[in-house]
Amino acid sequence: MRRYLRVVVLCLACGFCSLLYAFSQLAVSLEEGAGGGSGKPQAAAASWLAGGGRGAGRGAGSAGPAAHPGRSDRYSLKMQPVEEVHLAVVACGERLEETLTMLKSALIFSIKPLQFHIFAEDQLHDSFKGILNSWSFLQTFNYSLYPITFPSENAAEWKKLFKPCASQRLFLPLILKEVDSLLYVDTDILFLRPVDDIWSLLKKFNSTQIAAMAPEHEEPRIGWYNRFARHPYYGKTGVNSGVMLMNMTRMRRKYFKNDMTSVRLRWGDILMPLLKKYKLNITWGDQDLLNIIFFHNPESLFVFPCQWNYRPDHCIYGSNCQEAEEEGIFILHGNRGVYHDDKQPAFRAIYEALRNCSFEDDNIHSLLKPLELELQKTVHTYCGKIYKIFIKQLTKSIQDRYDRPPKER
Ligand SMILES: *[C@@H]1O[C@H](CO)[C@@H](O)[C@H](O)[C@H]1NC(C)=O
Ligand SMILES: *[C@@H]1O[C@H](CO)[C@@H](O)[C@H](O)[C@H]1NC(C)=O
Ligand SMILES: *[C@@H]1O[C@H](CO)[C@@H](O)[C@H](O)[C@H]1NC(C)=O
Ligand SMILES: *[C@@H]1O[C@H](CO)[C@@H](O)[C@H](O)[C@H]1NC(C)=O
Ligand SMILES: *[C@@H]1O[C@H](CO)[C@@H](O)[C@H](O)[C@H]1NC(C)=O
Hints:
The protein is an alpha/beta fold. The chain has two domains: 85-304, Spore Coat Polysaccharide Biosynthesis Protein SpsA, Chain A, CATH 3.90.550.10; 320-403, no CATH class. The protein is 45% helix and 13% strand. It contains 22 helices and eleven strands. It has helices spanning 2-14, 17-22, 24-32, 39-50, 54-63, 74-78, 96-109, 125-134, 155-161, 164-167, 172-175, 195-199, 225-228, 248-253, 267-278, 286-296, 313-316, 322-327, 345-356, 361-365, 368-376, 387-402; strands spanning 85-91, 114-120, 141-146, 181-185, 189-191, 211-215, 239-247, 255-256, 265-266, 301-303, 331-333. It has a seven-stranded mixed β-sheet with strand order 3-2-1-4-7-6-10, sandwiched between helices. The chain has a two-stranded antiparallel ribbon with strand order 5-11. A two-stranded antiparallel ribbon has the order 8-9. Helix 5 packs antiparallel against helix 8 and helix 19 (345-356) packs antiparallel against helix 21. The protein is globular and about 60 Å long. Residues 230-231, 277-278, 281 line the site of one 2-acetamido-2-deoxy-beta-D-glucopyranose (NAG). The site of one 2-acetamido-2-deoxy-beta-D-glucopyranose has 11 residues, from helix 4 and helix 5. Belongs to the glycosyltransferase 8 family. This is Glucoside xylosyltransferase 1.
């Protein structure tokens, strides 16, 4: 709160531009808004303050009309002056705390305002609202809560055929019709860098790319798809859909090659035939369907390196994510429940540290020392061996975000 007030005061006093150039991340956003000039972010910061506390009304408002999720957002999203980062997650069952920790990690490190799209089972909505509204003092995010839904034509069929929550993410381009681009993440993701960083990859897409994911494995000898899959999959080892960046405008426009008909099909038309054809052969649900789609349309996928989706698989059998060792771990993905059991204590320690901390600067700084001690206890495990990389990454992210000279804050 105080930080933002100071920012506004500063930008009135001496102009926001010099400030912007001080942060590399904001410099990126300036580049993206080329032509628009430096007035844009300034205007956004101001309207951001003005819109404080609105998250509450909005969350409540959009949770109501179950049949038309997202309708209440349509106009406000269209009129956004600054490019917002849209982050989506699907939370079911016991995933409340995990999802909130993921959202918190996004808020702690990110620079641009965030728009959360939370798809959750109805019984979780009140808890989400309670916590997210209590964070509204941050004024750096908005959220919308949606029920788990499917496009009406064959909603019943999808519900019958598949676990509803598991396939929800496939329908995001069809449900969030007014949103151009979206970062989808699983609930067991933790951001160790600003969300802005991965968002900036959208600008690197060439003209045929519509989505971005990381490989499922770096090492084919331990890969799952190349050893066991009974369906086509992307590339050498398949892709992991736990972190998926989408240009949904392009996904909605594209006609996809497929092995069901000789004509190309749109996103909304390909999913059901695909599921019908492969339902007996798929193991990992919607991730398998995505692998089949991008097997047939490889020119449409942007593959980002493993450090954007760093899983226990990358360290359990020895370190096999080279980029993470060289440049850091940007997004942690604690799949297989490792935040909640004792199999990978290094992952668990990072999860708990972020879960426990609160948003005050001092608190975020003081997270590092105990975490380092905790991680040192894990060096006997494979993933614990690289604990210094975790600490280095977190230290850097906290410095980038919080340790700016006082006059810049
Ligand atoms: C947040 O929501 C409020 C109310 O709908 C809106 O006025 C504001 O512009 C939104 N801000 C962003 C960045 O989405
Ligand atoms: C499913 O797997 C079986 C056994 O490997 C294979 O014979 C069959 O062709 C597969 N089905 C499809 C649709 O690929
Ligand atoms: C997504 O693709 C559309 C159509 O090519 C383009 O206009 C839009 O700028 C892209 N979005 C982003 C964030 O790059
Ligand atoms: C975009 O990149 C993909 C992956 O490298 C490639 O297959 C595709 O041909 C590229 N498209 C264009 C238009 O260059
Ligand atoms: C987080 O809090 C729990 C319970 O309050 C505590 O047992 C645990 O040691 C804390 N962990 C870290 C890493 O701060």
